Fold:
Amino acid sequence: MSSRDTDWDGVRLHVVTGKGGTGKTTVAAALALALAAGGRKVLLVEIEGRQGIAQIFDLPPLPYEERKIAVAPGGGDVYALAIDPEAAMLDYLEMFYGLKRMGKALTRMGVVDFATTIAPGLRDVLVTGKTSEAVRRRDGSGRRVYDAVVMDAPPTGRITRFLNVTQEVAGLARVGPVKNHADLVRGVVASPETAVHFVSLLEEMPVQETLDGIAELHEAGLPVGGIFINMVRPVDLPKDVLDAAVKNRLDHAELALGLKAAGLAGGSDDATAIAQALAQEVVDHAHRTRLEKRERATLAKAGTPRYELPLLADGADLAGLYELAEAIRAQGAA
Amino acid sequence: MTKTAPALDIDAILDDENTRIIVCCGSGGVGKTTTAAALGLRAAERGRSVVVLTVDPAKRLAQAMGLTELDNIPRLVKGVRSPDGAKSGHDGSQASTGSRGGSPDGSRGELHAMMLDMKRTFDEIIEAHADPERARQILTNPFYQSLSSSFSGTQEYMAMEKLGQLRRSGDWDLIIVDTPPSRSALDFLDAPERLGRFLDGRLIRILMAPAKAGGRSAFKLLNAGFGIVAGALTKVLGAQVLKDLQMFVSALDAVFGGFRQRAEQTYKLLQAPGTAFVIVATPERDAIREASYFVERLAEERMPLAGLVINRMHRSPAAALSAARSTAAAEDLESRGEHDLAAAVLRLHAGRMQLAAREQREQEHFTSAHPTVPIAHVPAMAEDVHDLDGLREIGELLAS
Structure:
């Protein structure tokens, strides 16, 4: 194990949330790879039954079982687990009550179905409980089995309620085993060993939701992690060109000359037409860049570390994941 | 090589008086609510009397439609133009109901919008189906209180219930509903069935048994198998939980029939010919995959699919200039050290063309699997929608 100086040393549970469409699962997977780099062992947990991890790593659907799915740069293993609430419930019955055989009878009776779909909050407690167990687990010699656990969590709008398990089951159980279990989970989730990271884009709605989510977490006393700004487009143009474009003062004639010099335009009419179309593209880009700058400044107000991940030209495939993992490491997030 | 999908004719759907319900569905973050609102505005401005039911709108979008409260009441949206271009919506007008008669024949349309209050909707169902004393018992039960505000399927279930109510009221000739941001985009279809499965299940009968036995101590009269399960339940849930749950279940027993019946009615409503499902996606792998899944699921459920809307497509005004030629030309200029501006602009263009090509491929994947599903596109825009003009613009793009 190498020791690195990262922004999240000491954090063992990384919860990754984000508005739909921001690439939350991709960032969680890349973060797991980055944390595993250099010979560590990391568990990547999925909880929503969407099999997003399998899709990103190009694997058949994952069972309810911890299995190795990837090798990190410089050695190190990423394991994955798709938590199925019903299976987690049976696990829980066995672990805490020795009720393994009872599980089948309970399933038949519809008890498990009830507990995992209808009972308020119980599903979330089971899922976070299973994750907390993996965080705390030690092997025979007393060493932690996983150096870190990364959870692909519910979207930003639901994250506080999801993690605030004690509160969630309060209506269901003020005392008793469920409450005790929830308190245990809360102990892990609210500790300094946990960080809740947000994935955002440089767009208004995801940025607003990120700030709202961070405020909610603070209020609930849950540990806020970093902001991963995903799908960042490179700024290809010099500032003076962007400024000119915003003011509609791009030098079309110079652009047309350049196009002709590059052999892209037949006559000068042609060059002018292409230059005009390209100039429109530049204006769009300039407006977008300005908007992004504004959103970046808004995110900075959250006062938590921010990391920028590039837009992957070919989409989030396996090679892209390693690229993102590298970017995460280079910026000290792992 | 390019597979072309049929075009989705939005106006034909909006203008068809037989279209009574439009359901916008798709994975999170693809612009479902914005699409629903834009369709609603366009339909209203084409003369229909429309209500848009949104589940969890972003603040900005709610403001764009003048919604300020989450209160389950349809509010008239001001600034809607009638087909001849005049504005409707009177100052100070509040929840107006019963505005019938809008139709695409040039008469004045209206747009109402509302946000779903799921707890209130649930409470109203209980009140409608139980006598006052029983309703009180249910509404004050702690189990009900958390069920009605946090059960992961409640929002979906209540959205469908509200849809059924709006339809039965007959006050609008078109209802547009935006589905909740679910764990799985299909939860709203499954929630009623899941609730039904629970209500019909054996667990309920176990829990009901003591009440039926005249309130004697729990589980005495049950056979051995049930007794063991009950013991396990007590152990896991705790005795208090079980007691609350029993009270809840016995009180709720009276309203179950009505519950199921309504769920089934709503389900049938979704299968009816007057319903049109519009799947919303972005040209990203995940969203397109979810859209495909949706197409298959709707077919299985025999629910009528109108088509797919792909939001945020990137296009180039200089599409004839390919990414490869653009890159080569930029390299050429750069190596000669000339025309920095043109070289930089060509690099930018190449990036945009690559993005457009990738998006095109994602769409083609969808179309090869579902060649008959009509598609409409909305280009990527720099800013989010802030007002009715923004929604109107999206509506125009959808229909073009």
Notes: Chain B is about 55% helix and 10% strand. Strands of chain B lie at 21-25, 49-54, 75-76, 110-115, 174-178, 275-281, 305-313, 375-379. The two ends of chain B are 24 Å apart (CA to CA). Residues 197-256 of chain B form one domain.
